[in-house]
Amino acid sequence: MSTSPLSIDVYVSPMRPYNSPDQLGEGEVATWAPSSSTVISGPTEGILIDALLTFNNADEIAAWAKGLGKTITGIYITHGHSDHWLGLARLLEHFPEARGYAAPEVVARAAWEAEFNKTTKYWTSRFPGELPETPVVPEALQTNEILVDGQVVHVIHVGQGDVEGSTAFHVPSAEAVVAGDVVYNNVHMMMYEADEAKRTAWIGSIDAIAALNPKIVVAGHKSVGASDLPENLAASQQYLRDFTTVANRGGSVEELVHGMLDLHGERDQPHTLWISARAEVARRALTISTGQSRPTSLESQAPRGPSGTKPRGPSGTKTLRAQPRSRSS
C-alpha cells in the first residue's frame, strides 16, 4: 500500500456546438459547456470520475487516461445528468475490466433520464449519431468508501447541485474534492432545475464541501486550462446569490441574462445562462398564473433526490476495493 498522496489528473472537453431546439436569443450561440473527467490514482491503479457524453468524449478520455499508465479499476459518476454518464458504455469498451458505479440516488436519476430519452429523444436529438443506442446505467454503490492503491476516497452525498441527488468524491490524502456540478469553474451555472429554494440548498451543499478544507476542487464544468482552486467554492456561491438577486428584480429573459453578464461576463458558456434565464422566467410566470411556485416540465417529471437529510459522509459504511472485475456479456 502506498503512503504517498493520491494524484488528481483532470481532462477537460472544450465547449462545442450542438443541435439546440431552443429559439435562441439575440446574440445567443448554442454550445455545450466544457466538461471535466478526473482520474484519481496511486502508483499502479486509478478510478475515473465522470464519463461525459459522446463517443468522441469517451474515446478522448480513454486515450488520455491510458496515457497516465495506471490500471483503471472503476468509473464513477457524480450525478444523474446524462452529459456526465452517457459516455460510460463507450468507456467500458476501452476499459473492459472496469465497472461503472454511482450512488443510488445518482443511479435513479440516470435510469430516469435513459427512459426519458427513449420517449422524448431529448439527448439523441441534440447529439445525433454521437450517443449509444443502448446506454449503460451505472451500478448502485453500496458503500461510501473506495480504496485506490490502499488509500480511501470518500463518496459525499451533498444533495443539491444543479440537480438533486448530487455527490462528490473526497480524496483526503490529496486534500482534494471532485465536485461534479455542485461547483462550476469560470462557466455559467445551470439553473434549469434550480429555483430560488434549490439555489439556497445548493449554496449549503457547497458549504459542506468547503467544510472539508480542500486545496484542490475539480468542477464538473470548467474552462479549459482553469486552475482547480478552492476559490471556486465561494465564486459559485456568489454566482447563485447574484442570479437570485437579478431574477427577483423581475423583467424579461434578456434583462436577466444581461444583468448576469454585467456581473459575470468573464465566464464561458453564456448559452447555459440563457437556458437558465428562460427557465426562471417561465417559473415566475407559472407562479403568477397559479399562485404557487411551479417546476419546469423536466423538473416535474424527474425523480427527487433524498430530501430533508444532511449531506452524508463516509462513516458507518463498508469499503469498496476498487478491484478490476470482468463484466458479464
List the main descriptive attributes of the protein structure presented here:
single chain; 329 residues; alpha/beta; Metallo-beta-lactamase, Chain A; 6-stranded mixed beta sheet; 8 helices
What does this protein look like?
The protein has 329 residues and is α/β, with parallel strands linked by helices. The chain has a domain at 7-188 and 202-229 and 306-321: Ribonuclease Z/Hydroxyacylglutathione hydrolase-like (Metallo-beta-lactamase, Chain A), CATH 3.60.15.10. 32% of the residues lie in helices and 20% in strands. It has 8 helices and 16 strands. The chain has helices spanning 55-66, 88-94, 104-120, 196-210, 231-247, 253-264, 270-290, 297-301; strands at residues 7-13, 16-17, 31-32, 35-41, 45-49, 71-77, 100-102, 139-140, 145-148, 151-159, 166-171, 176-178, 184-185, 216-218, 221-222, 319-321. The strands form 4 sheets. Strands 1-4-5-6-7-8 form a 6-stranded mixed beta sheet. α1 (55-66) packs parallel to α2, α4 runs antiparallel to α5 (231-247) and α6 (253-264) packs across α7. The radius of gyration is 19 Å and the shape is globular. The model is unreliable at 304-329 (pLDDT under 50).
